[in-house]
């Protein structure tokens, strides 16, 4: 959940796990914003998750949200986010996906912070009124102009080098490859995400 500060201007980017956003991070840094609360390790052994994956409710106990200039989040189709999580953890597909998702579901029910908050429904990260942007709309220079308009902030630099993406060496996993049992479990888990962010659960691939 990185916080960006440039003089008296502050931007809170609610970076929900597996929703993209590398361009956004690089864009803000290129425009002289210092980055805070972006840490890939827990601060202590007692922390429930790393600071970069705090929910807005968690962060509200640390900083004064009313003092932030602009707060926004990035979101993604729940099923695509889920498949991305599996691929990140098992790039070689060495564990059968139904097996892993079934186990992950049980782990999440036992501990909502499991996998560093990566499985938590996206709707639980933000609060009413937070502006959100869909990964499917692409984060690029065109998006930067929209962000300027929405936030009333100036970003003189809009073109930043793209990070190299890892090459896919295996067949792409499709949601339709999953068993109906697994599909039903995750539909129920992410039901509020579909409604909140206007995603169609029938658009599975």
From TrEMBL:
MF-aspect GO terms: sulfotransferase activity
Gene3D superfamilies: P-loop containing nucleotide triphosphate hydrolases
GO (cellular component) term, any one: membrane
Family annotation (Pfam families): Sulfotransfer_2
Entries under SUPFAM superfamilies matching the protein: P-loop containing nucleoside triphosphate hydrolases
Protein name: Sulfotransferase family 2 domain-containing protein
């Amino acid at each position: 959940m990185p916080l960006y500060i440039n003089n008296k201007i502050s931007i809170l980017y609610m970076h929900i796990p597996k929703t993209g956003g590398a361009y956004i991070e690089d864009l803000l840094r290129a425009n002289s914003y210092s980055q805070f609360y972006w840490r890939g390790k827990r601060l202590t052994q007692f922390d429930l998750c790393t600071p970069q994956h705090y929910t807005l409710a968690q962060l509200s106990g640390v900083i004064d949200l009313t003092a932030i200039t602009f707060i926004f989040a990035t979101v993604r189709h729940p099923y695509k986010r889920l498949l991305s999580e599996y691929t990140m953890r098992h790039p070689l597909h060495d564990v059968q996906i139904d097996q892993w998702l079934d186990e992950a579901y049980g782990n999440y029910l036992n501990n909502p912070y499991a996998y560093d908050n990566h499985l938590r429904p996206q709707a639980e990260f933000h609060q009413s009124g937070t502006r959100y942007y869909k990964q499917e709309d692409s984060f690029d220079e065109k998006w930067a102009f929209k962000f300027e308009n929405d936030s009333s902030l100036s970003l003189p630099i809009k073109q930043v080098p793209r990070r190299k993406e890892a090459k896919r060496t295996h067949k792409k996993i499709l949601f339709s490859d999953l068993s109906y049992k697994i599909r039903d479990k995750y539909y129920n888990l992410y039901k509020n995400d579909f409604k909140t962010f206007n995603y169609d659960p029938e658009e599975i691939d």
